[in-house]
Amino acid sequence: MNRGFTLIEILVVIALLAVVTLVIANNMVGMQGRERENEYENYKMRLESAACSYIEKMDYSDKKSECKRNASSESCKITIKNLIESGLIADDMYNPKEGKVVGDRELLDDYVLVQYVRGEKTCTLQE
Fold first, then answer.
1. What range does the domain containing 94 cover?
2. Is 2 inside any structural domain?
3. Which strands make up the sheet holding 111-117, listed edge to edge?
């Protein structure tokens, strides 16, 4: 009586282990991609929220009223530099899409467009 496994049985087990390993590895890569997307969405939301707060703090100036009158106006563009200078965001805030901090010169000119449509304010990051 033989007390071992045949070569075919061992090869089948190795093949099954390889398939299971590939499935697990593929799921892990997909989770990392979704995590990066979530990080970027959070980044965008923080910038847009900061820009909406920035425009609300501008009650004393004409910037908010100009923005309400003319949505395509330059006054409706709140740059990252404006947000950093006002203290609403930190200059070391990380942009996961670009792999840089917002204080980098390349990102300082990105802006959030603030628009008023039927009295409703929307803030959208423009890159």
1. 7-126
2. no
3. 77-79, 111-117, 120-126
Task: For residue 60, tell me if it sits in a domain.
Answer: yes
Whether residue 78 contacts residue 112, with contact meaning beta carbons closer than 8 Å, is answered with: yes
- Residue 90 phi/psi, 5-degree rounding, is -90, 150
Count structural domains, the chain: 1
Is residue 124 within 8 A of residue 115, CB to CB? The reply is yes
- For residue 1, being part of any structural domain is answered with no
Listed in sequence order, the residues at least 6 apart from 101 whose beta carbon sits closer than 8 Å to its beta carbon are 91, 92, 93, 94, 95, 107
Is the overall model pTM greater than 0.85, yes or no? Answer: no
Higher pLDDT, 43 or 119: 43
